[in-house]
Design a protein that fits this description.
Blueprint lengths: L3 E8 L20 E6 L10 E5 L2 E5 L6 H8 L6 E8 L9 E8 L3
Antiparallel strand pairs: 1-6, 2-3, 2-5, 3-4, 5-6
């Protein structure tokens, strides 16, 4: 297993607009999420989406995603590991899921 270091924390933006409710039972603290760059996103040219399997649950919030978009655009997406750090069913949908992003050591 590659070593990793804490990089940042964020939340999942746009949860209510995507498929998060369809895979909600899989969204547990510690669950790994996949980060996918969406360079052709018409709403945000720096868009980076979070997926759990094939289920898109939302995005890194606009204003927090520029550095991630740059890394992805330069083919360094393998540097990151995203894990759920909070699930709050009572919170507003924009604050329901928290994510910790780690930097991974290259293998």
């Amino acid at each position: 297993m590659a070593r990793r270091k804490y990089f940042t924390e964020t939340r999942v933006a746009g949860f209510k607009y995507h498929e998060g409710l369809l895979c909600y039972d899989e969204l547990k603290v510690g669950a790994e999420l996949t980060m996918v760059r969406e360079a052709d996103n018409s709403y945000d040219h720096n868009a980076v989406a979070f997926y759990r399997g094939d289920c898109k649950i939302g995005y890194i919030p606009r204003g927090e995603n520029e550095q991630f978009a740059t890394f992805f655009d330069l083919n360094h997406s393998d540097l990151f590991e995203a894990r759920i750090n909070k699930v709050d069913e009572d919170a507003h949908s924009e604050n329901r899921i928290g994510v910790t992003i780690f930097l991974k050591e290259r293998e």
